[in-house]
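Replying to the earlier thread about multi-chain prediction with a worked example.

Input:
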Amino acid sequence: MKRHLISTSDLSRDDAILILDTAEEMARVADRPIKKLPTLRGRTVVNLFFEDSTRTRISFEAAAKRLSADVINFSAKGSSVSKGESLKDTALTLQAMGADAVVVRHHASGAPHRLAGSGWLDGSVINAGDGTHEHPTQALLDAFTMRRHLAGAADGGPTMHQGPGDGTGRDLAGRKITIVGDVLHSRVARSNVHLLHTLGAEVTLVAPPTLLPIGVESWPCEVSYDLDAVIPKSDAVMMLRVQRERMNAAFFPTEREYARRYGLDGDRMARMQEHALVMHPGPMNRGMEISAEVADSHRSTIVEQVANGVSIRMAVMYLLLGGNEPAVAAANPTRTEETPK
Amino acid sequence: MSTSKILIRGAKVLGGDVQDVLIEGERIAEVGTGLSADGAQVIEADGQILLPGLVDLHTHLREPGREDSETVLTGTRAAAKGGFTAVHAMANTFPVADTAGVVEQVWRLGKESGYCDVQPVGAVTVGLEGKQLAELGAMHDSAAGVVVFSDDGKCVDDAVIMRRALEYVKAFDGVIAQHAQEPRLTEGAQMNEGIVSAELGLGGWPAVAEESIISRDVLLAAHVGSRVHICHLSTAGSVEIVRWAKSKGWNVTAEVTPHHLLLTDELVRSYNPVYKVNPPLRTEKDVMALREALADGTIDCVATDHAPHPHEDKDCEWGAAAMGMVGLETALSVVQQTMVETGMLDWAAVADRMSFRPAEIGRLGGHGRPVAAGEPANIVLVDPAYRGNVDPTGFASRSRNTPYEGRELPGRVTHTFLRGHATVSGGELA
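Result:
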């Protein structure tokens, strides 16, 4: 493992599978009466959030606490940052306080990259979402969720959910994953395209042409403007949040037109394969990109994704802060399942 | 007072024949072989190239207002080290150079510096706001004698304002230098729009935002019979439009920066804001088109767009960083590497693109003159064999925001003479 997690494009297939497998071990902790490991006792994890994101922050916080790390939450709002403190000075402050890992959410693409490469701090940097660039732990938890459902059949073919642990050691070879919505502004889409490609999945992006970046043709995926053509072939359909304000910048004419052409409703869901999943990174706009009927259906993994997020973030922190321990040791259940003293 | 004599012996004048050049006082007294050194200070210039003092149509000297990044004095010292004897100072200062008072202040500061002539550029519109014409005539009639007008940093995007400005300055042979950037197409833009921006998730700055304005402005210039100058061309498409406009015989000139001749948007993958610049670094294809256009004369000249920024404005995340790069002290080296050593320009053509043409566009009488007896002794000596890594700590500029730190570049200015007076000697400020 590298020292930082900035982009899923930095992860090899082996790295990605190690994280997913470690997360399976971490998930077992959640089923125990005492949901805590002593692994990161005495280590300090700072949640450095320049952008509000309660969901992501509490997920990282829960993950760090389950590993017994000390957690400091730093929110830009009402802090020295709102008084004009620079990223550099904030980083130097955290460095002086001895942060072992900094989980950073920032509105500027590349800010975590800059923190990791600037020499401003020594700790590991974990990208918790930067601008419209990447959100690697989201992609990892998405892949984790997909693998549990889609990589578990004995014959290698897709199956519906068989329970935790399915798919350990496997990738997503041959699975057809469709990502629908505002790809242009989506850090989730970028991270997913890289990671799913690395894991062998075939990714198709579906969006109105206005919401696809110029240059998308160089990405390792297919692009389609026609959701109906892609839906029946998909093993999973991931709907991205679309901000209603985008129509004011003429990305699409109206909410209703967007929902009609690119939203996932009951009729479209009915044309999905039996085993196929509906996913959403949240927060959802019900009635916009996804109908309530679909969001609440048995195919939906949306709540499960949230739970899996904690396991993935535990795995990432564990592996990054494992220091000199070999990756093999990191994946060794006897170490991770040590009972708290 | 006796006039000083300097004999430059054995330089290749404009890269051609080895000749001696005798300077007496402010002028070139004689050019020839075997000139007498009697009573003259002798500079042995074996292997060196002698060029007319370089002229820059596009710098930001930041004074008044941002003296923390550059002053006219530090900027002209940087210019002298880069081989320049005249620079144009853009109008986006604080206050904006949109009145006779401000342009005269900048002009006077240049005179006082003594390192390089400073020709202020006047704003086209009041406060660079694109709404109301600034007093262009008053700036022209001032002691600064402004000829080039530009809202650089901002585009004159209103077609009517642009048309009127183009027409108005005809009365005194002025020129509008357009910063071609369609504002709506570049809202939130952070880097060239393409493969790299798509991956990095940085707001895209499409080529068409530049090309659409250039298209409009060459048509406007043709329509009203004025001359227009296009600042910092950065795309292959812009080159084609300017080439087409010139083929029509329209009075269109254009400049390219050294960084757009060398660097591409691939460098932005580092998210290092030292590569953040307006217009943005483009692709390899654009770089090659710009080099060809400079070689064939479609692009008239090289201009640095020297844009100093204090350290803190670059030592931050990409999105928060200021746009711009310093360029005066590396310009000639970059041109040597990209144009001379590739065989696309000889040194005589470098003199044309970095001295004769920009002086002509800016109507600078005393600069961009031939190396001949009787001409003002604005001269630069270049050692083309020199190789060195760029070390910003040695810059004369107050700012260090160079994209070339640690990069090996060829060539070094050893001497610069401004009207016979050495501003740089032995590679150091005199």
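Chain B has a mean pLDDT of 97.

Feel free to reuse this layout for your own posts.
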